[in-house]
Amino acid sequence: MTEQGPLRPLNPQGFFPLLNKLSTWMWKNGDTPLEHGPCVSCADLKGWLDMLNEPLQPHHMPPRPSRQATPAQIIILGFLGIILAGALLLMLPVSSRMGVVTPFSDALLTATSATCVTGLVVHDTATYWSPFGHLVLLALIQTGGMGVVTVAVSVVMFSGRKIGLRQRWVMQESISAPQVGGIVRMTSFILKAMLLIEGTGALLLSLRFCPQFGLLQGLWYGIFHSVSAFCNAGFDLMGTSAPFSSLTGYVGDPLVWGPIALLILAGGLGFLTWQDLREHRLHFRAYRLQSKLILVSTAGLLLLSFLFFQCYEFRLPQWAELSGWERLNAAAFQAVTPRTAGFNSVDLTLLSEPGKLVTILLMLVGGSPGSTAGGFKVTTLAVLLLSARAVFFRCGSPSCFGRRFQDEALRSASAIFLMYLVFFLLGGTLICCIDGVPLLDALFESASAIGTVGLSICGTPGLSLPSHLILTFLMYVGRVGGLTMIYAVTSGSPVSSQYPQERVTVG
């Protein structure tokens, strides 16, 4: 009798091939009597049993689920990290003019407002924060306007390190690019365009501020307000004349509100639109469909809002102290600034009820995808309106400019619109219940937060801490995007199966 070696552990993965062979043999010979049919040979039996004794191979192991963060998770965590770091810096005594420690709640709201390029503040920017605090705010505004991922990729580019496929993938999601290819060139173009636009705006504003505030302070004011306007942040340093006054002292000065309005529009058009403008110039037909929708929708919103403010709002008795020239300037600027900018050239508390409502709608719409602006975006509005037109006229799929939309665009637009509407109504209702402010004013504050605008009527400093936390959450959701938040939370969820269709009547 030969001595047997130690028993090896059975390979569980060999069970399935064995089961497959046995079932095949039984299927072929199941109807044959055992005494007349073929039987299993010893060689076959030995080969089958050896399957169970085969050692485990590395390639037999099932792949482990990836634990790498998704682009959506990277984006929301990046913004959260920048906000917390900014809040800690603003809490330092060196950040305030009085050299005191700023409460964490105030620092958190201010840092969130700066990073999310909103403009809602509890302390006047010019009088409360020190020059160091202003630098911190400017860095947060620039980082939030460009996007955390864009800034990180830019640092990697300048360091000379190679940008991998995963970084390109995250960058594509961050700027809403149509494809990964050419994303590095796109990032380089964004940086150059940003520096050119902000530099030009700073120069134009300095020509007006330097004679008024002196050379150094005028240059600093030009740089700060240029970056704040291009990033659609709405932070200003004009509180030295009157706290929270914004640009009310320049209502009839186009040398100030004009460059700021142009900077707001440039930042709100989106990076892809800039690329089309650079490559195709005035050849509108050569633009991609998204750029056409952005330009046409933006022009339409600007025209309609300007006509409303000029023909109705600023003809009311409460604006009688403004001259005809100042009313024209105020109407033009008021049509632009609700596009998530946050500057104001008039006292917004004097707005009529229809004026407040129109401003709320403009703040909710916001700017364009892949831009420094917030809101549920003009492309979302365009897709919904064109889809409604297709339903009304029974045109089949919604289309424009000789192109039709994919079904995913309509589903995403509906989800984004509903999400913003729910957060806007819920936030405004909670603020109204907590602080007892009028509902329309509370909705104005809520729309300003989730649209990352920064305009205020009821006065953010006068609200309670729970309302401040609500506004902080709304600003964060409005900047990172509703779908980005959902994708980050639901990543890794199993794909649902396709169920049978059944007709449902709507409307």
Spatial strand arrangement across the major sheet: 1-2
Radius of gyration: 30 Å
Largest sheet: 2 strands, antiparallel
Shape: globular
Give the count of helical stretches: 20
Low-confidence stretches: 1-13, 30-38, 54-65
Strand portion: under 5%
Residues in helix, %: 55-70%
> What structural class do the secondary elements suggest?
mainly alpha
Q: How far is the first residue's CA from the last residue's CA? A: 86 Å
N to C succession of SSEs: HHHHHHHHHHHHHHHHEEHHHH
The average pLDDT is 82
| DSSP strand tally | 2
Our count of domains comes out at 2
Note down, in words, how this protein is organized:
The chain has 507 residues and is mainly alpha-helical. The chain has two domains: 12-57, no CATH class; 71-343 and 360-489, no CATH class. Helices cover 60% and strands 1% of the residues. The chain has 20 helices and two strands. The chain has helices spanning 15-29, 42-53, 71-91, 104-115, 125-128, 131-146, 148-159, 165-175, 183-213, 215-230, 254-269, 271-280, 289-311, 324-336, 353-365, 378-392, 407-435, 439-450, 465-480, 482-490, and strands spanning 399-400, 403-404. A two-stranded antiparallel ribbon has the order 1-2. A hairpin with a 2-residue loop joins β1 (399-400) and β2 (403-404). The radius of gyration is 30 Å and the shape is globular. 40% of the residues are buried.
